[in-house]
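hiii, so i know i said id send this last week but things got crazy w the move. better late than never?? heres the sequnce for the chain we talked about at the cafe, plus the structure i predicted for it. fair warning i was half asleep when i ran it
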Amino acid sequence: MHFFEYLGKVITPIILVSVIIYAIIEHKNVFELFIQGVIEGEKIVIKLFPTLLALLVAVGMLSASGITEFIAKGIIKIFPAMEEYKSLVPFILLRPISGSTSNAIGTNIMQNIGVDTKIGILTSLIIGSTETTIYVISVYGSKLEGKNMKPALILGLLADFICVVSCFVFINYLYF
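okay and structure toks below
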């Protein structure tokens, strides 16, 4: 175990020194290449910023408005078996939209209910098996102007749905 701790501390300096040595051997100007990379990165950030800002505002509005709780109550009325998992419904609804918001909700669930409970384990499984589909497609889709992102969105949300259902099946029929 001490080897991996040591490796974790020295791997970054080793990579940096290796890159610099390689650049010197190849007669490259490392600092100028670094500056060019920063400039290119800045252009990407400027292009993505409006999309990220819009997503952050939308998630904040969804969370603050209580819409997720309203939808959660509707889902529980339609599927009474979900009553046991009512604390998970807003988490599941926000997971495809925002990773940070869903992780905050998931952390809150695990702190209040416990990590070794059925709901705590289910929360961990959902965090690990689903993706922030809408967020990812919004960010990459804004870069791919003119492309039809609807099939990717539908397939991504379908995959998230299958993952959530699989997690429920695992917890209810295979684990407990």
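btw DSSP finds eight helices and no strands in the chain. thought thatd interest u
miss u guys!!
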